[in-house]
Fold these 2 entries.
Entry 1:
Amino acid sequence: MVKKKTCVFISGEGSNLKNLISHSRKSNFPIKISLVITNNINAKGIIFAKKYKIPFIFINTKLKNYENKILFNLKKYKITFICLAGYMKIISKNLVNKYQNKIINIHPSLLPRFKGLDTFSRMLKNKEKKAGCTVHFVSEKLDSGSKITQKIFFIDDNDDELILKKKTQTLEYKAFPEAIIKIFRNN
Ligand code: GRF
């Protein structure tokens, strides 16, 4: 199997990155993580790139030409697939167009419900019964591309934001690899 050279974009903890790295080390998993990009020099997740000797690059998204730096590195590392794993920056139209149906994102809600930030506090305020996560293709519109995988759980009366986050992330660690397998199943 020729694994797709993949770049994972992160901004924070990187627990999904860690999970994807461990899956990608299996011989039958369709992707190899060849590059990690972060827009946050202090992202804890960088630790996992270092540990597994995966090249990582900090992109200062405050600089005007940051987009070119991203594109340059994607080309340099021959990246054909991109996973956004807690990347807190909107991907530009240009990048989305260049990687049409090749960029996926994981979002901590049952999309199309609760797009954007602060999903858990909004769910609790709204007295939602269900929560979960969604893996979807990235389109020009925020959290709106077509769905690949969705996982659901029922919210308990005493679930607070922290518990919701924990429960959601446990599902994310299943959903993200499943989505990747689903995408490349017939390739
Ligand atoms: C995840 O919950 C994901 O749904 C959201 O950001 C979080 C990232 O967590 N987009 P981590 O950095 O992978 O630990």
Note: The two ends are 10 Å apart (CA to CA).
Entry 2:
Amino acid sequence: MELNDSYGRKINYLRLAVTDRCNLRCQYCMPAEGVPKLSHSDILSYEELFLVAQAAVSMGIEKIRVTGGEPLVRKGVVEFLARLSTLTGLKHLVLTTNGLLLEEMAEDLSRAGVQRLNVSLDSLQPATFKQITRNGELAQVLAGIAAAERAGMPVKVNMVVMRGINDAEILDFVRLTLDKPYSVRFIEYMPTIKEENWQSLVITGEEILGRIEKEFEFKGLDQVELAGPAKNYKIEGAQGSFGLITPLSGHFCGACNRIRMTSSGKVKSCLFSDQEYDLKPFLRSKDVIAVKVALRRIIVTKPEKHQISCSEAEHQAFAMSSIGG
Ligand code: SAM
Ligand code: SF4
């Protein structure tokens, strides 16, 4: 079965946040004091999350990314992932994590059927990493990535590039791909929490690529189906590759194939749309048909494109930890 929106885009990717809690406080994701936590009763049970995943896959979703908050802090997440991996029709089960708990969990995640990991890592310098994450330990994340490699899970390393904070490390992240089989992706900073003067933090994909071009020769790689919006490149002879994700300067709305659900059951068809649908009432009454009807309505009303750019953002501020990125 194929799910299409009213602009003819095939929707086959669901991002599922399993918690709003996090063991970090990244500057670009949430304010220093954190964000108000959802109450236990607001968060969907694994049973309810599974029901949505099952309904979505039966309607044509082929890829699920489990995210958060930090998904690995929710108890029982490995068992939940193992259950998701049994869904007939689900081709890709992947996870996004900050990597802090990965060292101890990588083997179990792989056994549970997680095929690939995205690890968010914005600096290779312990002090800068601490500053961005408001106290995270870089060594713990690096040990987590090494454990994921040993467990046989391919790793994408996602770096949010911010002018004056970590942009001096762009070339170091490219160098990582020479010896490691990672796919490093440079992500344009997005004004989700709308910090003052957020525009000064933005470095466009074009500028990032320009800086890399001065130092390295590389070739473009073909787009892989369901691999997401990154444009990817490889230095000849390198083990890994690098890519650019440009939500601000180069909207990929025309090729957007995704919907998102928060851990409290709010579904969004566009990260920057203020429109969301609450599935919780249907989930609490186990009304699978109503869940499917709502999912279809959400997809049909998916906006054509968002309105943010490198200089303007016309959405309500939100913490990415509540939506899952
Ligand atoms: N805690 C996990 C992590 O950090 O990977 C998963 C959730 S996090 C909200 C998902 C992704 O959103 C991370 O890669 C993070 O870097 C990205 N993100 C959060 N706020 C962002 C922002 N303002 N601009 C760009 N990316 C952002
Ligand atoms: Fe937590 Fe991920 Fe947000 Fe950082 S980006 S605060 S790790 S949810």
Note: The pocket of S-adenosylmethionine (ligand 1) is lined by residues 22, 28-29, 67-68, 70, 96-98, 120, 158, 160, 187, 189-190, 192, 320-321, 324-325 (CB under 6 Å).
